[in-house]
Amino acid sequence: xxxxxxxxxxxxxxxxxxxxxxxxxxxxxxxxxxxxxxxxxxxxxxxxxxxxxxxxxxxxxxxxxxxxxxxxxxxxxxxxxxxxxxxxxxxxxxxxxxxxxxxxxxxxxxxxxxxxxxxxxxxxxxxxxxxxxxxxxxxxxxxxxxxxxxxxxxxxxxxxxxxxxxxxxxxxxxxxxxxxxxxxxxxxxxxxxxxxxxxxxxxxxxx
Length: 207
Prior knowledge:
single chain, mainly alpha, 10 helices, 76% helix
């Protein structure tokens, strides 16, 4: 059915964008647009995907227009829109606000996304939300808070066996401690990093 075809195109566009093929991702979204005339539940996903694409391309004005549309749509459909869709839209808006050098506004969106992902137990979303909150704290020069958020994201990423993401987060933590040892509990943070590099894990991943 057309609804299913549109969803497939939207999903594929995200995979194409993440693999570094923005032109192909944009083409899939253009193909999906006429298919959702009778599927209003997909309108937020299409607008969000277009907003993410524009954000990645550096067209922040276009991104804001699409993401505000997506946010309005999920707000209007709040009772029926899946929490994951709401969280993804809030997260995308947070990413845009960070690109616009507005970390306080970004933090509000990422916190909302975190709360929604907690409701559904969406571990991958939780890890991304916490990392993004760490990036907000980093932008605001709150180094201890940034380190705390990165540590919480590491716990979840490692327990999900997301090796590459865990490695990237540990590198962020290492760089943070190296640059700002006077404001962070450096010895404890380095001990934390060493534990995870050695493969130790904690049972409790609740952020």
